[in-house]
Amino acid sequence: MTGLNLGEVAQATMALALAGVLGLLLGRLSIRGVGLGIGGVLFAGIALGDVSARLGLHFNAEMMEFVREFGLILFVFTIGIQVGPGFFGSLRRSGLQLNLAAASVVVLGVLVTLAVHFAFDVPVQALVGIMSGAVTNTPGLGAATQALADVGAGADAVAMPSLGYAVAYPFGIVGILLSMLLLRFLTRVDIPAEAEAYDAQRRRGSGSLPSLDVVVENRNLDGLRLAEVPGLFDAGVVPSRMRKDGALLVPQRDSVLACGDVLHLVGPTEKLQAMRLVLGSEAAAPLTTKGTDLAWARVVVTDRHASGHRLRSLRLEESYGVSVSRINRAGTELPAQGDSTLEFGDIVTVVGPRDSIDRVRGILGDESRRLDEVDFPGVFLGIVLGVLLGSIPIAVPGLPAPLKLGLAGGPLVVAILLGRLGSWGPFTWVMPPVANHALREFGIILFLAVVGLKAGDRFLDTLITGDGLAWVAYGAMITLVPLLLVGFVARLVFGFNYLALCGVLAGSMTDPPALAFANAQSPSAAASVSYAAVYPLVMGLRIFAPQLLVLMLFAM
């Protein structure tokens, strides 16, 4: 390279690009569906780093540090934007039990890591890397590296987590698969029966809102306005269609009830049954818009002026004579109430005359292409806010130094909140999945390539003549003990569905190859649904855990 008179920037750019090319190709190699994935970039970087050191090539430290940190920021920010819309929803109802199990795996992993530290006197800077590798969590490695830099550790100390990560990572992948197999065979799981049981349970607790047609028979309601009927509209049950005197109408709050009227109600099952008892009896035939002047349509909220407004303030019912019966947000259907706040990307079901529906489309936006655009001003504003938040010191009793979210935690927290918000003023934080994935992969490739290049000159020495083999054993403990303990307790004590539990275990490690292995056991969606439910919380915990360990142990 020196013969070509390449500058420092050119040399670093070529090294990073080569690490990306070779690493991604290496990650595509798999044995029975199991491979290194994006982790291949780290190992390719290590190999190139070793070759570069032997050739006497050295890269500008400040430039490489910037690339590493910017890649990490880009990675965690896009993760936050992705998981933000479903983060808080995943902590409710059945998702709470799944998240408690996944969080238990994380907490037990931290406790095993602490036990390894005190029992075998493993250096903190290696320990946090081993833990991140053992749980196959790359953002955790980034958080550990950043935390060490924040407490003033030297360059050698900052580079050591990547060595521990690389040593422990291979068994981290194998260990999660081994745990699933042990759990399956030792508890004698019948896969088809588990799939059938899960599908039956999911049908009972469907995330979509059911509907019910009810004939009004309660004479006490005769002559009352719909707004005066307890339980309707803002109490969770929405009347979206009404048949009165043989005509199909859009029910409004001022519509007057009479015995014999038929209402098409939308809402949670238990509330629908309660309303049936109040109103009368279930209609013999469904109330349909076919052959009438009414229609229904799903409209996407993409107009910035509509986003963030309450349904009541838009006055769609009064101005256009339409009814909004459902709001689909991030795959979950919600009842439409007057106080419901619309968010960018919501899909609302509108019932009314066809020309009125067309006018409502103009109010709400309904421009699906807007969902495919990346609002880069919003992205860069979010990064600014994330870096600022990550730089704020937080005093925690018992810790030797203030806790900082850092360049990993700050952008993640801000992105989760902004992803949940969706949009504000001229800024939009809804990001198309394809664009999100591309930015996320680009960021983590930069980060892993730099980490590998900086650690390459010491990896083989650590593995062969140093403590590398012992680190492999420590990583195996951190991988297996939490997974097996939580897995058997969840299955035998709390009766978790095995397929859903596999998704929880894979999600607790944020490990896509493990999810692929779990999905290969059955065509049921159980594992994927559970993985998605626990991923947001676990990702946050995996990023914060190494920082806490560094602050608690490094100064001791």
Give a quick rundown of the structure.
The protein is of the alpha+beta class.
- Straight-line distance between termini: 44 Å
Strand order of the largest sheet: 5-4-6-3-7
In helices, the fraction of residues equals: 55-70%
Individual helix count? 19
The tally of beta strands, per DSSP, is 13
Instruction: Let me know the largest β-sheet.
Output: 5 strands, antiparallel
What structural class do you assign from the helix and strand content? alpha+beta
CA radius of gyration: 28 Å
Mean pLDDT: 82
Shape assignment: elongated
Assembly state of the chains shown: single chain
Strand content: 5-15%
* Low-pLDDT regions: none
Question: How would the blueprint of this fold be written?
Answer:
Elements: H1 8-28, E1 30-31, E2 34-35, H2 40-54, H3 61-87, H4 94-120, H5 124-134, H6 138-150, H7 155-186, H8 191-204, E3 211-216, E4 238-244, E5 247-249, E6 262-266, H9 269-279, E7 280-282, E8 294-300, H10 311-314, H11 316-320, E9 323-329, E10 332-335, E11 347-353, H12 354-364, H13 376-390, H14 406-421, E12 423-424, E13 427-428, H15 433-464, H16 468-492, H17 498-508, H18 512-520, H19 526-553
Antiparallel strand pairs: 1-2, 3-6, 3-7, 4-5, 4-6, 8-11, 9-10, 9-11, 12-13
Helix pairs in contact: 1-2, 1-15, 2-15, 3-14, 3-15, 3-19, 4-5, 4-16, 4-17, 4-19, 5-6, 5-7, 5-16, 5-19, 6-7, 6-14, 6-19, 7-15, 7-16, 7-17, 7-18, 13-14, 16-17, 17-18, 17-19
